[in-house]
Amino acid sequence: MNTSVTQTAARPEARPRANRSLWARLNKNKLMYLMILPGLIYFLIFKYLPMWGLVIAFQNYQPFLGIRGSEWVGFEHFERLFNEPTFWMLFRNTITLFILNLVFYFPVPIILALMLNEVRVKFFQRTVQTLIYIPHFMSWAIIVSLTYVMFTTQGGLINEWLASMGFQKISFLTEEAWFRPLYVMQVIWREAGWGTIIYLAAIAAVDVQLYEAARMDGAGRFRQLWHVTLPAIRSTIIVLLILKVGDILELGFDHIFLMLNGANREVAEIFDTYVYTAGLRQGQFSYSAAVGFFKAAVGLVMIVFANKLAKRYGEEGIY
Questions:
Q1: What is the mean pLDDT of the chain?
Q2: How far does the signal peptide extend, from start to end residue (predicted)?
Q3: pTM (two decimals)
Q4: How deeply is 56 buried, as exposed, middle or buried, from its count of CB atoms within 10 A (0-12, 13-18, 19+)?
Q5: How far apart are CA 98 and CA 272, in angstroms?
Q6: Which residues contact 85 (CB under 8 A, 6 or more apart)?
Q7: CA distance readout (Å), 33 to 17, 25, 41, 67, 213
Q8: Tell me, what DSSP letter sits at residue 60?
Q9: Does residue 191 fall inside a structural domain?
């Protein structure tokens, strides 16, 4: 009895101590939490609060009735999506472009970062970095416009050069076979330089003593890169790869929409452009919300799967 009374008497005292320690930690790191606050507010307002609107995916949403007054239809819109004749075309196009991005684009920032790290002339290194960063600050409208100027059959630089060499002009912008190569080249040109920032930061954090030990063992520049630099940034590569896999159905709307036309629609139409067509142009809000819900669910499943796979092979993962 005395023991139980003592424990119950101690419990109320333990809670204030825990609260005091929590507030002490918050007060100690208040500047750090203050720096985090704008990001938290952003995600709360623009990421979490709008998730309430996902309920219309299970309704026959009518704007004049609102969310509470609209009729509930369950999984009707999801059934319609999976039974649509265009579903597998959208799924095939989206997955194909994602795989092309993963195979051709994802390694490029890593290679660029490794190459820039080997440059010993700092002025040249910074100049190259600046030049490859610039395309990231251009909108996709500018990128696609430049592509049009370069590849159009009506006075395009590439086609004019082909014609001057005696070759036939090629319809790069309308032929289905050329859409995917152009798409990948545009992504690499715009984003590869910007993607090197994280890898260069990870390389800068590598212990210099590891390189000194490798040199003492007779390792040249390439062996140092292969046996020291790459293993040191492997965790960063894995984390970014997991996040990339989560965007398996999120390729972005504006880039594809600007490249899309009636001639290449069979290989260019993806879920993002389909949501725009069904939701905004045709007013099918509930159906387009169901398509977006499906995309988000697939992305979440892929992140969880990729994270578990990474942990199974000894990597840290993202959580």
A1: 88
A2: none
A3: 0.84
A4: buried
A5: 13
A6: none
A7: 22, 11, 12, 36, 40
A8: E
A9: yes
Percent of all residues in the chain with a pLDDT value above 70, rounded to a whole number? 94
* pLDDT of 10 over the 70 cut: no
Please report which confidence band the pLDDT of residue 91 belongs to, taking 50, 70 and 90 as the band edges.
Answer: very high
Number of domains in the chain: 2
Alpha-helical (H) ranges within 70-220 are: 76-83, 87-100, 107-118, 122-133, 140-151, 157-164, 176-204, 208-216
Print burial letters for 152-184: b (CB count within 10 Å at least 16), e (below 16): bbeebebbeeeeeeeeeebebbeeeebbbebbb
7: pLDDT strictly greater than 50: no
CA dist., res. 180 & res. 126, Å (int): 32
| Nearest C-alpha neighbor of 186 from the set 140, 152, 150, 155 | 140
How many C-alpha atoms does 135 have within 13 Å on its Cβ side? Answer: 19
Query: Do residues 189 and 81 share a domain?
Result: yes
pLDDT in tens, 257-285: 999 998 999 999 999 999 999 888 888 99
Q: DSSP 3-state assignment of 36?
A: helix
Report the distance separating Cα 264 and Cα 121, nearest Å. 45
Interatomic CA distance for residues 18 and 16, integer angstroms = 5
Last residue of a domain, one of 74, 92, 124: 74
167-178 confidence digits (pLDDT tens): 999 999 999 999
